[in-house]
Structures are given as C-alpha cells and as structure tokens.
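Quick one, tokens below. Sequence please?
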C-alpha cells in the first residue's frame, strides 16, 4: 500500500497543462486529488476521469483562487468529503507579458490578484487546516532568476511567493509541515507554445544545457517528490525545475 494512501491533495489550476499533469501524477501516487479549476468544468472533469481510469480517486472543485470566500468553501468541502487535507499545490497562475512602461493597471491588478493574493488565500487556509505532517508546494518561475524583459510584473508576484514560502515554512514549526516552491523554466504547455514562432520555441529550448523544453510531467515529478515520503527533509526551499537554465 502506498505511503500516500488516504492522503488528500488539493491542486489549484488543475484543469490543464502543468496542473493537470500534477493532479494525474499525485493520483497515481495514491493521493485523493481535489482538481481545482476556475472556469473550465469540462476540462477539470476530464482530468478527474483520467485519474479514476488509472485507478485513482479524484473530485473536481470550482473556485477562483483570487476569491478568498471561494477558497474557504473549497477547503470546507474537501474536509467534509474526505475528513482532512494533507497537501496543497498552488499551481494556479496567470502570465501577462509587457514592458513595465506599457503595463496597464488591469494587467498589474489581475496578476497580483491571482498569483499573489490567490496564493495567499490558499496558504492562509492551509496554515490553519492542513493535517500535521502535511506538505505545501507553491509555484514560482525561473524568470525570478533569469530576470527576462517583459516579465516584470509576473516575476515580481512570483518573487513574493518565494518569500512567503520561506516564511510559512518557519511558521509551521512543530507541526511537521514542509513548505516549498517549484520554479519551472520554459515548459511545453499550450499556454507557453501559443503565439510563439517555431524559431523562438527552438531558441528557448536550447537555452538550458539539456537542450529541450520541460514537459508538464517533468514539473509534476518535482512536485511528487516534494509531496511524497522522499521529500520530507526539504523545507523552505525554491526548487528550480528548468534543465539548468539558471
């Protein structure tokens, strides 16, 4: 029997891309998975179906992470359904690229609302409600290290997430709860590939010494390590899962 059996994991933004890959991997690893989504119910249900077809257990849960009350309700319903929550994966996020000179207020406010406030909303609930021995895995980006042009607001929200990660790890003292972040580099998701020329994709793939883009499964493997029994001694860290680009 898996060490993760009877453990419950909430994965935010899990209806597609990296989030869906994480949900499926944790389902394979024995977790009961709460597949959170903001708007695309059909896609979330498809992820649930794939997890169940592979022998796992999953349920979908609608909540915009930027809405504190919706997040609270999602935690409530997970506790009611499964008796408690062991793992939170804060994957939900948006990226709107623009030079700082051209970034409008709506661009700034939306990224802060989802990436920073959204992460805060789920961390606040997790800090109070996660079972002892639990795990929190937040999402940053390797752009925090690379500092690429046009990513200013996005990278700023993620740098804030890295800081909250390290501080929450200390605040969980005495409860055997680890808090870490994963910072992907360029990863082959629809979100990343859309609107980019083949030449640009090829160039970005060659940036790291392994000379390929990451896959959603690569990122899911890093999350699974941190969520599983082998990741228990890693705490307060940001793991850059990017093939060595920085």
């Amino acid at each position: 029997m898996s060490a993760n059996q009877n453990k419950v994991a909430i994965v935010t933004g899990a209806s597609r891309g990296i989030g869906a890959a994480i949900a499926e991997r944790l389902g394979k690893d024995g977790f009961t998975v709460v597949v959170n989504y903001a708007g695309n119910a059909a896609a979330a249900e498809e992820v649930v179906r794939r997890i169940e077809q592979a022998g796992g257990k999953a349920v979908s849960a609608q909540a915009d992470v930027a809405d504190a009350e919706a997040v609270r309700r999602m935690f409530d319903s997970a506790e009611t359904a499964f008796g408690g929550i062991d793992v939170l994966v804060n994957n939900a996020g948006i990226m709107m690229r623009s030079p700082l000179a051209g970034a409008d207020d709506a661009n700034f406010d939306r990224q802060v609302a989802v990436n920073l406030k959204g992460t805060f909303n789920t961390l606040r609930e997790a800090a109070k409600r996660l079972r002892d021995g639990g795990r929190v895995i937040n999402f940053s980006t390797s752009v925090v290290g690379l500092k690429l042009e046009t990513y200013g607001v996005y990278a700023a929200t993620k740098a804030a997430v890295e800081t909250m990660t390290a501080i929450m790890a200390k605040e969980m003292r005495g409860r055997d709860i680890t808090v870490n972040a994963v910072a992907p580099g360029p990863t082959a998701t629809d979100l990343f590939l859309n609107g980019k020329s083949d030449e640009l994709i090829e160039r970005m793939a060659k940036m790291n010494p392994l000379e390929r883009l990451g896959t959603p499964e690569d990122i899911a493997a890093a999350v699974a390590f941190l969520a599983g029994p082998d990741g228990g001694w890693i705490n307060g860290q940001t793991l850059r899962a990017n093939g060595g680009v920085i």
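The mean pLDDT is 97. The two ends are 38 Å apart (CA to CA).
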